Amino acid sequence: MVYAMTIDANTFPAAKFSTVSTLLNIVLPLVMTGAGLIFLSMLLMAAFRIITNGDNAEALKKAYSSMMFSVIGLLIVISSFLVVRVIGSLLGAGNLIPQ
What we know:
By secondary structure, the protein is mainly α. It is built from 2 helices and no strands. The chain has a domain at 23-90. Helix content is 68%, strand content 0%. The radius of gyration is 22 Å and the shape is elongated.
């Protein structure tokens, strides 16, 4: 049995993003959400390590450094998002970045 399908605008629609701005409007919120979830999971794991390793100084040091690096990573992600917004507004690409 052979299955055939006609490819036209109804059965195979065009891509949802045709420009870079529409692609960034889809990707940037997903990246920011992913970065927030990674930050939250790293922070919770570090807090769990602090609670469970209260008497081990070396493990506490690693947990505190993990917590510090997760905060620094979140600050880098937020600052890069703000830099992209500022550059987009300076260049006049208002629809480049989701509001």
